[in-house]
Design a protein that fits this description.
With about 120 residues, the chain is α+β, with helices and mostly antiparallel strands. The chain is about 30% helix and about 15% strand. The N and C termini lie far apart (about 80 Å).
């Protein structure tokens, strides 16, 4: 014989389970896809050894950065990945409506950029 279960506790459990769904995802997961962005990043090899990057808006070059920003001496990025990381940071700042995106030494350090 089956016992009668009150619908209130069952409904409360269902509400609790449904409200917890998806909370383990980071808040920034929903983002504009790169294809939808008006900005494009291109990493290039500099003269000598090293890398730089350029940021384009609607196909027009907006920023050309052959050297690591903020660093005192004119030093190219050591690796393509270093240039790509900083270019991505600058692109994100532009997408967040920062007119003149600046990069700090702390941001370079947090990205793991190698400089002298």
């Amino acid at each position: 014989m089956l016992k009668y279960v009150s619908p209130i506790p069952v409904a409360a459990i269902l509400v609790l389970l449904c409200s917890c769904r998806g909370t383990d995802r980071p808040a920034r997961e929903v983002r504009t896809l790169a294809a939808d962005s008006v900005y494009e990043v291109r990493v290039y090899a500099t003269q000598g050894s090293g890398y730089g990057y350029a940021v384009y808006r609607h196909g027009r070059k907006m920023i050309d950065q052959p050297h690591i920003p903020v660093v005192q001496c004119l030093q190219a990025f050591a690796t393509e990945m270093d240039a790509r990381r900083v270019a991505g940071l600058v692109k994100r700042k532009l997408e967040e409506n920062s007119f003149l995106p600046t990069v700090s030494l702390q941001e370079l350090d947090s990205l793991g950029i190698t400089y002298r």
